[in-house]
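Continuing from the previous page of notes. For each protein in this section, the sequence appears first, followed by its C-alpha cells. Read the first protein now.
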Amino acid sequence: MVFFSSGNSTIPTFTYAGTPLELVTHFKYLGFALTRDGSMHTAAEKIADNFRSAIARVYRTGDSKGIKHRKHAMLWLFQIFASTAGFYFYGCEAWATSSLTHDSSKITPYIFHLGFLKRLLGVKKSTDTNCVLHETGQMPAFFYWFRCIIIRFWNSLLSSNNPLLEKVVQAVVANHCHCKV
C-alpha cells in the first residue's frame, strides 16, 4: 500500500509480474477502511457506524427482554454488544492515536458512547462527561484505546526473538520496578 497525501502528486505505476497494478482511492484491508491519503477519518467513521449498530442492538435486546428501564442491565448489554465486541477498539492503534493527545470528544465513536450513557441516565446533553462516566463505571474512551495500544506493543516486545529488544525490555523493567523478567 502506498499513500499520497497530496492530491496533485505524480503517482508512479507499480507492476507485479509485468502487469500494472490498479490505482484505487479507497481500500478495505482486514475490515479497516483505508483511503488514498492515509487519513484515518474514514476508518473511524466506519467504526462509528458499527458502534451505532451495536448500540441499537443493545436497545432492541433491552426492549425485547423487558429490561430497557433497568440501567444496570442496559450497561451490561452495552459491555457485551458494543464495548467488548471490538467495534470500539478494532484498529484503534491507527485511528485513535490522535485522540490520545487531542480532545477525544470530537471522535465519533466516543460521541456515540457518551450519547448512549447520557440517554440511559436520562441527563441533559450538557451534563459533564466525567460525571456521566463515573456514574456508569465507565472510563474515557482514550483510556481503553491507550491500554489497547500499549498492551499490544508491550506483548509484541516480550514475544519478539530480537536479543536487542529483550535487553531493552529488561533494562526498562529493571529501572522501573523491583521484579525480574
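Done with the first. The second protein uses the same format. Note its length before scrolling.
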Amino acid sequence: MNRKGSEKSPTDFISEDESEDNGPVQKLPSVTIQKVFSQISDLLGEITTDYPEITLKLYCQSAQVIDKIVNKSDELEEIAYDFISNSLIVYQDELSDSDEKLKAIKLIVSTISHLECFDNDNYDTLASNAAQY
C-alpha cells in the first residue's frame, strides 16, 4: 500500500513519554464516548438502505450499550433516543415484508421496555411512537 502524505504511521502516535529520541511526536486524538456513538450512528445511516434489518438491530443494540454505561450524561440519553428513533424510521420506511416488520417491532418494543436511560418524557414518547405500529 502506498503511503500518502496525510497518512500516519503507527509510530507517529507514540506519546512523548514513550518516544526514544524525545523528538516531537503526535499524541492520539481525544476520543469520547459521544464521538464513538456519533460515528456508529453515521455508519448505520450509510447502510440503512442496503441492510435495513441489520441496521435496525444495530440501532437497538447501540441504545442498549448506552444503557449499560454507568455515568450517563444527558448527551448520551439523547444519542440513545436517536438510535431508537432511527430504528422506528427504518421500520417505517425500509421494511416491507410483514414477517420482518413483526420481528422488528417486537425487537423495538422489547428494547424500549428494558432501557433505563430515558427520563419519563422520552420513554413515553418512544413507547407511544412504537405503539402506533
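What the second structure shows: The chain has one domain: 33-131. The CA atoms of residues 97 and 103 lie 10 Å apart. We return to this in next week's lecture.
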